[in-house]
Write a structure and sequence with these properties.
It is a multi-pass membrane protein. Its main location: membrane. It comes from Pseudenterobacter timonensis. Its EC number is 3.1.4.52. This protein is an alpha/beta fold and about 270 residues long. Helix content is about 45%, strand content about 20%. An eight-stranded mixed β-barrel has the order 1-2-4-5-6-7-8-9, surrounded by four helices. β6, α6 and β7 form a beta-alpha-beta unit. The longest helix has about 30 residues, at about 5-35. The protein binds ligand C2E and calcium ion (3 copies).
Length: about 270
């Protein structure tokens, strides 16, 4: 019979091997997927809350993995962040958006939102990537950088933020109200846009505590002159409430589900704006 200590150390060794193997295989899968272009871009329109005019889109990534089928970004994005693969993924999103940019109007007031992780701000990488992909393709005024509040906003390089804004790009804080950053980051980052998380939109008319939070976020945005976008709008009731309370842009299944970029021009003409 093996001594207990030896058995334990064998077991621990095996577990460590398992963890390393699964990490390596994820890194491998993502790199393989990027090379094989298994990732596809979708876009979801943002509408003016009063006129219903389409003011822009958000780019959303999809992974059609031939071995596992469609994988949700809610699954692979956090894993990619953990494995330091979020920068190459975002680079792919930028390159693909620019490759398909002609599906979108070229007017400076049509905005294109890209989800960017805070870690991409390090070492000026984001600026280099925008230089490489965006600046020669479209006016920088069309770009909105969506930075999620789940991220450590303290990792963000403010000089880079200021530089981007000086060039004319807009900064949005994504999923506002769900992160753990303190309100002082609002002062530091001075975003142009706050995106109210879907959980707060869903709470309207159903959940007293969270709809109070919605009201407070709206008041905060108005007081600081920050444009407000509500995401996850699914009902007319939510849309009416948000509009009446001063949210200027709405995004959600009520208007359009995320669609492949090539479907966007048809969607735009069919609704007449
Ligand atoms: P997000 O940035 O908050 O994006 C909005 C999510 O809400 C999208 O999910 C969208 O499909 C979904 N959504 C929009 N309207 C509605 C609605 O009316 N009802 C419901 N139930 N859902 C709605 P999706 O595309 O699955 O993306 C999930 C998250 O993954 C995104 O949340 C974002 O954090 C992340 N993600 C997606 N694409 C990218 C990307 O290219 N880069 C990075 N870094 N993150 C991404
Ligand atoms: Ca987003
Ligand atoms: Ca969001
Ligand atoms: Ca969200």
């Amino acid at each position: 019979q093996l001594p207990l200590a030896l058995m334990l150390s064998l077991l621990l060794g095996y577990l460590a091997w398992l963890v390393t193997a699964s990490r390596m295989s994820f890194t491998w899968e993502i790199n393989l997927g990027l090379a094989a272009r298994e990732f596809e871009l979708f876009c979801q329109p943002l509408l003016n809350a009063r006129t219903q005019q389409c003011m822009g889109v958000e780019i959303l990534l999809r992974w059609n993995n031939p071995r596992q089928g469609w994988i949700s970004p809610d699954v692979f994005i956090p894993l990619a962040e953990e494995h330091h693969l979020i920068v190459p993924l975002t680079r792919y999103v930028l390159a693909e958006t620019v490759r398909q940019i002609d599906y979108f109007p070229a007017t400076p007031d049509f905005h294109i939102g890209i989800n960017v992780a805070a870690s991409h701000f390090r070492h000026g990488m984001l600026l280099q990537d925008l230089n490489r992909y965006w600046f020669s393709a479209r006016p920088v005024q069309q770009l909105i950088v969506e930075l999620t509040e789940r991220d450590a906003l303290r990792d963000v390089d403010y000089r880079l933020v200021r530089e981007l804004r000086r060039k004319g790009a807009k900064m949005a804080i994504d999923d506002f109200g769900t992160g753990n950053s303190s309100l002082s980051w609002l002062e530091k980052l001075r975003p142009d846009v706050l995106k109210i998380d879907k959980s707060f939109t869903t709470a309207i008319g159903t959940d007293a505590v969270n709809s109070t939070v919605t009201d407070i976020i709206i008041a905060l945005g108005q007081r600081l002159h920050i444009e407000l976008v509500a995401e996850g709008v699914e009902t007319e009731q939510q849309a009416r409430y948000l509009r009446q309370h001063g949210v200027t842009l709405l995004q959600g299944y009520l208007y359009a589900r995320p669609m492949p970029l090539r479907d966007f021009p048809k969607w735009l003409t069919e609704r007449g704006s």
